[in-house]
Write a structure and sequence with these properties.
By secondary structure, the chain is of the alpha+beta class.
């Protein structure tokens, strides 16, 4: 039996375009980890990837790392690999599932292979743009980097001129990009949490409204959809979580098209945890307090780590 409070290294920041979003997530996590149960050590990784401590020293003064980092470095498997090497339990998915979830090309192929609908897409590298006939691309189209967080470098192109500008912009973030068909409909997000052993369940579906220039979150609310549509979205989110091999938590972005079909956009293995984010709002709608939610995420980290050690 533990004789001390659980010591948590709260990892935030990092060399990502979602640095500020990570700080916002970390602030909410820190405020909701009960001080009677946890000693929290905030660690802000710099925009150049520098740590304020030696990573190898972490097991000497913390019991677990809570990863509240988004985008590259924090969500692509990099920090997970570092923590695996020092044998420190950490929240969320392992490095392989994280890398797969972050790679929109590979994860979309995986989802399609298992019968899920995804938008039709064109995959391009920078050197291929000069040979692309812009007039051959059906517009409007959504342009996004292939391996960045869901909010970074994404735009909706309605004209050939906008398409070229948005492709150049997306390529400034990634060496390859996706040009996806625009699916009219309602954008939904369904989050999943599990116990670290694969026993997972979906949270209530949330609807989001975004602006496509920088994709800021405008509104999060329970969607005006039927129980059958909500159940379908939850089933797809749960299946996506399992296919990627996610652990602890994930969120799946989808479009409920005007044609009645559900289209999978992308999965986040570390969804934003700010107060009004779809993830935290879904947990509250489910009946969890934020302290209870973060308790579960930490408990799942210990359970998964113990199960790996016993193999």
């Amino acid at each position: 039996m533990k004789t001390h409070k659980t010591r948590v290294a709260l990892l935030v920041g990092g060399p990502s375009n979602e640095h500020e979003a990570s700080l916002a997530s970390g602030k909410v996590v820190h405020a909701n980890l009960h001080p009677a149960k946890y000693d929290v050590v905030p660690l802000v990784i710099s925009r150049t990837g520098e740590w304020t401590v030696d990573v190898a020293d972490l097991p000497g003064f913390v019991d677990v790392a809570f990863i509240a980092m988004h985008g590259e470095y924090g969500e692509d498997g990099t920090v997970q690999e570092l923590l695996k090497e020092i044998n420190l339990p950490y929240t969320g998915s392992d490095h392989l599932a994280s890398a797969l979830g972050m790679n929109k090309i590979l994860s979309s192929r995986l989802f399609r292979a298992h019968g899920m609908n995804t938008p039709k897409s064109l995959i391009l590298r920078g050197h291929e743009l000069s040979n692309l006939d812009l007039d051959s691309v059906d517009l409007p189209a959504v342009v996004k980097p292939s391996n960045r967080g869901s909010s970074v470098g994404v735009g909706l192109a309605r004209t050939a001129s906008e398409l070229k500008n948005m492709m150049d912009r997306a390529l400034s973030y990634s060496s390859s990009i996706l040009v996806e068909e625009y699916i009219p409909g309602r954008e939904l997000t369904c989050s999943v949490i599990d116990d670290g052993l694969g026993n997972a369940f979906p949270l209530p579906v949330m609807q989001v409204s975004r602006g496509y220039t920088n994709r800021p979150l405008v509104n999060t609310s329970p969607p005006a959809i039927s129980s059958e549509e909500a159940g379908m979205a939850q089933a797809v989110a749960l299946r996506a979580h399992q296919l990627v091999g996610a652990s602890g938590l994930s969120s799946l972005d989808m479009i409920l098209g005007e044609d009645g079909n559900l289209y999978v956009l992308e999965i986040d293995t570390i969804p934003v945890m700010a107060e009004m984010s779809p993830f935290t709002q879904a947990a509250i709608a489910h009946g969890l307090t934020l302290p209870e939610l973060f308790d579960r995420i930490i408990e799942a980290a210990f359970i998964r780590h113990d199960s790996i050690k016993s193999r």
